[in-house]
Each structure stands twice: as C-alpha cells, then as structure tokens.
Amino acid sequence: MIDLGSPSQNAGRQLWFALALLLAPASASAGSADIEHRCTARYPNVWQYFAWKDCVKTATQEEREESLKRQREEAARPCLAADISRMEGLAAKASGAVKSEWSLEEAQAALSLIIGYQGTIEVASDNIKERVLVHSISTKCDASFYFLINLRADQDQRLRWFRIWAEDPPSGYSAGRHQEFSVEFEEQRQQERYRAEAAKREEILQAAINAEMAKQEREREEARQMTLRSVKISDVKMKCLLGNCSIRSLDFLVTNVSQEPINEISFGWMLPSSQMKACPSKLAIKETKRLLLQPGEKTPLSISILNAPENNDGRYCLSVTNVDKNVFPTASDPIGDDVAAAKAAFVAIQRRNKIIAGIASKLGRITPEDLDIIDRRLAETDNPREK
Predict the structure, then answer these.
(1) Residue 230, pLDDT score
(2) pLDDT higher for 198 or 343?
(3) pLDDT band at 31 (very low <50, low <70, confident <90, very high)
(4) In this predicted model, which residue has the larger pLDDT, 243 or 50?
(5) What letter would DSSP give residue 283?
(6) pLDDT value at position 27?
(7) For residues 323 and 233, what is the distance between their CA atoms, to the nearest angstrom?
C-alpha cells in the first residue's frame, strides 16, 4: 500500500509548492526547474523553505560553473591538443631524470630544473613513516588539466616509485595513472638483485662446469692412454722403395696385449728433421688400420710414406694414437653414417649426464636455467666459433 500521507501533510505540500511558484523567478529554465525539483525532494516541508532556497542557489551556481568550465575547455581543445606533447615531453624527461639511489631532496633539486619550480615534500597520507615529493605539470591553455607527480620514499629514505596521473584531462585523453611515465624503483632494485644473484650463480656454475669438464678430460686421457698401451709396436723397419728414398715404407708388427679384441688402430708418424733430438710426445693421426686383433694376437702392418726427403736418414717417429675396441661400420659402409651419428649422440648424452651429476653434487640442485647454461656451454665446446 502506498502511503499518501495525512490530509494535513498534503495540504502543507500544496501550500509549499504554491509558495515556491510565487517566489520562483518568471524566467526559470528547464535546468532550474530540475534543480528545484531535486531540492524539493530533499526539503519537502514548508518550514524548510530557506534550506530549499540555499539548495537551489548552490546547485544553480555549481551548474553554471560546470557549464562555463565545459565551454572553456571545449574552446581550449585545439590549444590542449598542441600542448599535450610538451607536457608529455616534460613528464618523460622528469621520469628519466630521477635515479634510484637519490634522496627526495636530490630528486627535488633535479626536477625543479626540468619542471621550472620546486615541488613540496610532504608526509604520505597513508603512511606517516614515508614521505612524498609532490610536483605537477600544468597546461599553458585555459583549462584545469594537469599532470600530478608523486615521488615516494620509504621510511629508510629509499625511493619507492615515481608516478604520474592525468588530472581533469580533456575528453579523449586517459585519466588516472600513466604507466608510460611511471618508474617502480622497488621493482628495479629487486630485478637488479635477481640479476646479480643469477650472474653470481652462473659464475659459480661456469666454474663447476670447467672443473667437471677438466675432470672428464683427464679421465678420458687416462682411459685413452690405458687403451693405447693395449697395443705394442715392435720390429719396426723403414725401407726405401726408390733409390733416392722419396718413397718409403714403415713395416712393423702390432700385438694386442689387452684382454679384449681390437678392431681399429690409428697411428701417427713423422720423419724428424736433423735438428730434432727426440720425437714429439703426441703425433697427429695419419693412418688408420681396420682389423680384428684378438687378445695376444699379432699382425704385420705397413705404412707408405710419399714425398719423403731424398736422403738415407733412417730416423722416424711412430706411435699408436687411437685404439677402438668397439666394432662400428665406417662412413663408407651403407649404414656407417647413421651408426656413427648414434655413437656420437650416445657419447654426448653420457658426457652431459656426468657433468650434470658432478655439478649437482657440488651445488646441491640444478635448475632449468642451469641446464640451459650447461647445454650452451657444451654446444660451444663441441662447435667452437671460428675466430
């Protein structure tokens, strides 16, 4: 049920409306009628006439001021469109000028040179222990639009952030905070700490990789030397195949002194010059012989030497440089390339797993980022760049 009020209340309202109509100006507009309607709803009783009158006066004045403001800003739009670039340029310059390690006072001095006046340092409204430098960039146009600048420092006087808001902007320009001019110093410091920690961990990781790779290299060399000792060279003879000895042959016996079959032996050789007193400790591979040599078995081999010096110097250097006890086809065989690739991939995986296990024992854990660094380092080692 709708309460229409008592007869005396209705009569009061009718008297009040009549009085309002008598006292209202004859030239009242539709806008003022709307204001009067709102004020009447707020102050419905006849004894509230003076409050109603103040309401109408205040609302009318506010509407007039708002209308004038809209008219002024509409007239200022061409000016604002041209001035915004200047304001944004100052905002960007101010944003880039402030350094994370500065105090508020240092920032205040620097910004005053850019903006043209010295801002004020105040206690933050939401934290009495913190302070904020307040600045603004005003438009040169006949408008209330401006950039509000706040530079906040924590209780330890470290800068927290630099932020800019567009206040009372013209239509078509974003109000509120503009991220493109804001700087979060706390986040920057946190990122710098993360980068420093990551760089330190990478330094430790690289050192661990170096140590592990050096250890593997030593182990491989020890295993290689042990494997090389599984072949014995004996009864070496060098023969001249031409009268001037420009073509020669090295004939010798090889014996498998290990407990496993051997299927491939590589040799390094050279003819030393007269100035050399001894053979080098390592010789490059120059000849590879494929054979099947059982434990204890020996076989004669021969190496042809072309373009030898034309003299009767019988000195030579000969050594075993590699021994293979695993039977794999060569690249010339139908499936040689595939098998060789599979062998290389298997060896690479074993090497990677050993490095990871060795590093994990030192660092305690391996992160995905660590694995990326390890893989990059192994790729650089396996495929060195040409200098």
Answers:
(1) 92
(2) 198
(3) low
(4) 50
(5) -
(6) 42
(7) 13
Type and span of the H or E element at 15? helix 7-23
Residue 231 CB-half CA count within 13 A: 30
* For range 190-219, the mean pLDDT: 89
Reduced to 3 states (helix: H, G, I; strand: E, B; else coil), residue 117 is coil
State the pLDDT at residue 385. 55
- Give the number of other CB atoms < 10 A from CB of residue 8: 7
Two tokens, residue 211: 């140590």
DSSP for 99-150? -TT--HHHHHHHHHHHHSS--EEEE-TT-TT-EEEEEEEE-SSSS--EEEEE
Task: Write the DSSP string, 193-257.
Answer: HHHHHHHHHHHHHHHHHHHHHHHHHHHHHHHHHHHHTTEEEEEEEEEESSTT-SSEEEEEEEEE-
Question: pTM to 2 decimals?
Answer: 0.50
Contact 323, 230 (CB under 8 A): yes
Instruction: Return the half-sphere exposure (C-beta side, CA atoms, 13 A cut-off) of residue 136.
Output: 12
Q: Rounded to whole angstroms, how far apart are CA atoms 180 and 177? A: 9
Spacing of C-alpha 310 from chain mean position: 64
Q: Where are the domains of the chain?
A: 28-181, 199-228+327-382, 231-324
Can you say whether the dihedral through the CA atoms of 65, 70, 73, 75 is positive or negative?
negative
Q: What share of the chain is helix, strand, coil (3-state, %, to 5)?
A: 50, 20, 30
DSSP per-residue codes, 292-350 = EE-TT-EEEEEEEE-S--SS-----EEEEEEEE-S----TTSTTHHHHHHHHHHHHHHH
Query: Which helix or strand (DSSP H or E) is residue 289 part of?
Result: strand 287-293
The closest of 148, 175, 174, 153 to 163, measured between CA atoms, is: 148
Class in CATH terms, 231-324:
mainly beta
Phi, psi of 174 (to 5 degrees): -65, 130
